[in-house]
Amino acid sequence: MLDSLKSYGYSLSYAGLFFGTLFFAASLAPSLLPRGFILQGLLSGVAFTTGYGLGSLFAWLWRYLELKEPAGRVNTFLHPAMVVGAGLVAFIFLWRASIWQNSIRSLMQMEPVASAHPWRVGLIAVACSVFLISFGRILLWGQKLVAKKLDQLLPRRVSIIISVFAVGLIVFSLTERIVIRNALRVADTAFAELDERVDEGISRPSISSASGSPQSLVDWDSIGRRGKNFIKGGPARSQLRQFSGREAKQPLRVYVGVRTRETLEERAKLALQELKRIKAFERSVLVVATPTGTGWLDPGAVDSLEYLHNGDTAIVAIQYSYLPSWMTLLVDPDRSRAAAQALFKQVYGYWTTLPKNQRPRLYLHGLSLGALGSEASTQLFLILDDLVHGAVWSGPPFPSSLWSAAIRSRNPGSPAWLPQIADGAMIRFTGQHNSLTDPARKWGPVRVVYIQYASDPMVFFSPGMLFRKPDWLRGSRGPDVSPYFDWYPVISFLQVGFDLPNATSVPRGYGHNYSASSYIDAWIEVTQPPGWSHEDTRRLKKILVQKHSGQ
User: Fold this and answer.
1) C-beta of residue 452 within 8 angstroms of C-beta of residue 410
2) Beta carbons within 10 angstroms of residue 462's beta carbon
3) What is the Cα–Cα distance from 6 to 199, expressed in whole angstroms?
4) pLDDT digits over 349-389, tens only?
5) Neighbour tally for 94: CB within 10 Å
6) CA angle (203 as vertex; 201, 205 as ends), nearest 5
7) CA distance 432 to 140
8) Domain stops at, among 124, 150, 176
9) pTM of this prediction?
10) Do residues 214 and 109 share a domain?
């Protein structure tokens, strides 16, 4: 066993160890979100393996091109010196890791950590990298075996290239068919079962205007967990009356689950029928909302709208998935677009048939993958004369087309994490601090607000980070981004990629965890609630921020 370990160690590439150790060290630097030692260990293991692979590839290309190598004694001294030097850098970075992690935690009002657990991080990283490198060696063995067979028919260099592509294609095919599909099947089953659960205290509504009630067109048992929580949640009429000091209406909420109807079109048509049944088009405000991948609508977003308009509102949504947004984004991001377009087509089509002075103001809303989908529905009315009144989109994922176009066209000097678009007449951005109210900027007929936090990896991750410093790290940075966060090629891409599944693990108001306070500011600007005052805003923020801080 000991001899095998020695043989394994001697066979390692010095160039690979050098670059791998540097990559390991760089992975310890801060990114957008704080990381626990398990996630950090896995990230560092992947980073080391990536660096090792690149270093080994560089050394192989050097030999392949038959370039001159250092002389014997120089070579004997240079290799250990490279590894020792890189190891010293890794030691310094491990020593600084807790400082870097606390630089993020302090910005997010989280308790500091006494230690980054360097030994645990190191052990996990070693185990992860040994596994990945061993797997890579198995692939290399297979490549050499194929190349050896091809050598009999083709020139050696040609056989090497063909064998690399052949083995890569086989591995990709097997991974996609066996590993990825089975993993997705397991995840799909697990989240489907979770979606069918009913939280404690959630029972079938008795009020006739509620979806799933005995009078409803939507079967209660067909609605998923998130949809049931949405229907039964929100402020009661008495709470709205107490807050406003005047008579209020019971807010209307329509939700059609993924199991209610087979297709998106059928769910959208049923949602419209349910809106007609409860006379939702007689309300002052109607919102077509697109939920997240799990079917969730942020209570801070929908509750705040209902308070602002004293219950004179209707919100409608259909479910298209029960997987988390980051997973749905990787598997099938078009689901949310198709769902949003199907629902908007039905609601908008009917809404345009109503007299303009007898119909509600129509708005769009979506969080995360819901924002990506909701954006897509705007393409249906941009060329029409009868425009909707606005939208509130929060945490738009990086593939969002309208969002990315707005970022690219921002005014010179405005940062990517808080851009200014033209004169701000149609599109405005805001974050933790309200940046929407500016007397110098006048709104146009359509008001669109994007809420995005500078520390949100769902918003700011991008494949381009592999080899290009992102715009949001140039110049001034967001208030919730560590001053120690520097961009490293490949490494920063891995860091922010590992932040994605962890995006909602931070307190409200940071990362992908949006605060009711931000929604209140956005809805006020977009919907202009009548008779609303600054004191009302202060009181509502106090109520909702406290209510939703733990969600």
Assistant:
1) no
2) 17
3) 55
4) 999 999 999 999 999 999 999 999 999 887 655 546 788 99
5) 19
6) 130
7) 49
8) 150
9) 0.88
10) no
